[in-house]
Amino acid sequence: MNNPFLSIRDLKVHFSTEDGVVKAVDGLSFDLAKGRTLGIVGESGSGKSVTNLAVLGLHDREHTALDGEILLDGKELLTATERELERLRGNKMSMIFQDALASLSPYHTIGAQIGETYRKHTGASRREARARAVDMLRRVGIPMPDVRVDDYPHQFSGGMRQRAMIAMALVCDPELLIADEPTTALDVTVQAQIMDLLKELQQEFGTAIVFITHDLGVIADIADDVLVMYGGRCVEQGSKKEVLRDPQHPYTLGLLGSMPSLHGPVDVPLSPIPGSPPSLLNPPSGCRFHPRCAFMEKVDGGRCTSLQPVLEVVDGRGTACHLAPGQRRELFADFATARAL
């Protein structure tokens, strides 16, 4: 990718605890260009949110070991000072959190909270900030924004609060937007509205978006590219079409097999992945997915249990698996590409 706006190289985020070191992210790399959306998918505890909190510089550095490289428009973030990060947060990069009600202050109006961000980064007056807040609420589809701007978070529905969060995140026209499962608590209709809104705003602002989710249906709707995380590492990456229609890692195959299809018979049983995600305090040796993998015995020499697979990336398509490409084609042949959304 030429001149990526966000570039992460060999990122490691390790937490010190009383029981030992938690390797929450353990060697992650990816690029993201302006105007594109990267969907990061994986089960809870795979390292999705931890990665993006590192981008924003929101980890407690006293108890967190950060290593690697995070470049935002050429600026290294891991070595940036807190003052430098404060200038970037909300301005050049911003985040939409999963729980809008918990993220908004119950003691201040929606307009005051949106306006505060705008004033901090632009030096605008209170009147200018209020006008900007009204404009942003209008742009995210909140009716009567000149009235609702003076309402408190509890006076908004869940979908409207999430729209207000999006307005706050975009008030300073950030070039990078991180959305951390922003539709998880919403019903399907509101989810679709929020997804359409993000796509419209991206077209308007040219924003680079990192969209974190465990829902492959959401990924199919909004992402251009997909990165699949498991146990703090990337196991597969590529374009949305490549990853969802032609999965190359057993974990990705398992995720797709555990979700209902919109095509074909409705009585096709789901195939959940057996077992549980690994402990990142004491992860399995070799491939971290091997205790749950249905194809481990197909690899010669016990490499799955002893040797960590390397993520091999060719033309943006990457897989970290000991199965040879020919083996994957043969073993995954029963996967019906038509069910891939």
TrEMBL record:
PROSITE patterns: ABC_TRANSPORTER_1, ABC_TRANSPORTER_2. Residues 8-256 form the ABC transporter domain. It is a peripheral membrane protein. Gene3D superfamilies: P-loop containing nucleotide triphosphate hydrolases. It is found in: Cell membrane. Its main location: membrane. GO terms for cellular component: plasma membrane. One of its GO terms (biological process) is peptide transport. This is ABC transporter ATP-binding protein.
